[in-house]
């Protein structure tokens, strides 16, 4: 039954831009990869990472020269990396952190099809890259999930107990609750993460995600800390 709910969620949740807003090609001189249509930046590394599902996801690591912390950003459901680059450059500049961003399977130049479980495998591959390529431990890592990106963000957070922090931006409880303000907890709901101190900031007139999503998320977190 879990596969049924996941397939329904995929139809409701994932809308990759078509066509993709960028492509990946070999960098000049054949050393590494680059994103087409993006100005060259000596502080950006582009990767095509294999996942457990057999797909390859595109990820980009944006270095800030004196950064101690790294932000792993999981974007929303209707954008790809090409549309998000301006935001990543702003975040890197203003927060003075490294930014690791990636496209889900089936988004941008990543292969495969988007699905709930593929997003889990995608973020696992990206985290492995951070550890192996850049030596970044979870103590210096902040996970940031926007909209549907809250799913893979919390999946990874449930496996790491020493993270510097987790940020959910317009986080969702489920694909169904985005369409309808369902306030009851259904039998197939899954709660993976128990949190300590958890501040919540949200408005009562949210236009994209019903505010009931945030109220219930806050209530679940309060319950988990009792």
Task: Give a brief description.
The chain is α/β, with parallel strands linked by helices.
How are the SSEs placed, and which strands pair?
Blueprint: H1 2-13, E1 24-26, E2 33-35, E3 44-50, E4 56-62, E5 70-74, H2 81-95, E6 98-102, H3 116-134, E7 141-146, H4 150-157, E8 165-169, H5 175-179, H6 211-224
Parallel strand pairs: 5-6, 5-7, 7-8
Antiparallel strand pairs: 1-2, 3-4, 4-6
Helix pairs in contact: 3-4
What does this structure look like?
By secondary structure, this protein is of the alpha/beta class. It has one domain: Rossmann fold (3-Layer(aba) Sandwich), CATH 3.40.50. The chain is 32% helix and 18% strand. The chain has helices spanning 2-13, 81-95, 116-134, 150-157, 175-179, 211-224; strands at 24-26, 33-35, 44-50, 56-62, 70-74, 98-102, 141-146, 165-169. A six-stranded mixed beta sheet has the order 3-4-6-5-7-8, with helices on both faces. The protein has a two-stranded antiparallel sheet with strand order 1-2. A hairpin with a 6-residue loop joins strand 1 (24-26) and strand 2. Helix 3 (116-134) packs across helix 4. The radius of gyration is 17 Å and the shape is globular. The chain starts with a helix and ends with a helix. The model has no long low-confidence stretch (mean pLDDT 81). Residues 71-171 form the AB hydrolase-1 domain. It comes from Aegilops tauschii subsp. strangulata (Goatgrass). Pfam families: Abhydrolase_1.
């Amino acid at each position: 039954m879990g596969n049924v709910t996941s397939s329904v969620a995929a139809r409701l949740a994932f809308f990759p831009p078509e066509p993709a807003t960028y492509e990946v090609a070999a960098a000049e001189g054949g050393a590494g990869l680059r994103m087409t249509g993006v100005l060259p930046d000596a502080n950006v590394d582009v990767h095509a990472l294999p996942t457990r599902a057999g797909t390859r996801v595109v990820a980009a690591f944006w270095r800030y020269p004196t950064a101690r912390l790294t932000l792993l950003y999981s974007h929303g459901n209707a954008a790809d990396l090409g549309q998000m680059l301006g935001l990543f450059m702003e975040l890197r500049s203003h927060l003075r952190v490294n930014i690791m961003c990636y496209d889900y399977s089936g988004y941008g130049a990543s292969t495969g099809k988007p699905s709930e479980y593929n997003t889990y495998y995608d973020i696992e591959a990206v985290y492995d890259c951070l550890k192996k390529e850049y030596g970044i431990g979870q103590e210096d890592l902040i996970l940031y999930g926007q909209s549907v990106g809250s799913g893979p963000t919390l999946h990874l957070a449930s496996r790491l107990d020493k993270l510097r922090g987790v940020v959910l931006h317009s986080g969702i409880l489920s694909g169904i609750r985005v369409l309808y303000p369902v306030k009851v907890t259904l039998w197939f709901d899954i709660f993976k993460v128990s949190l300590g101190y958890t501040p919540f900031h949200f408005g009562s007139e949210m236009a994209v995600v019903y505010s009931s999503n945030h109220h219930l998320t806050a209530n679940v977190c309060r319950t988990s800390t009792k």
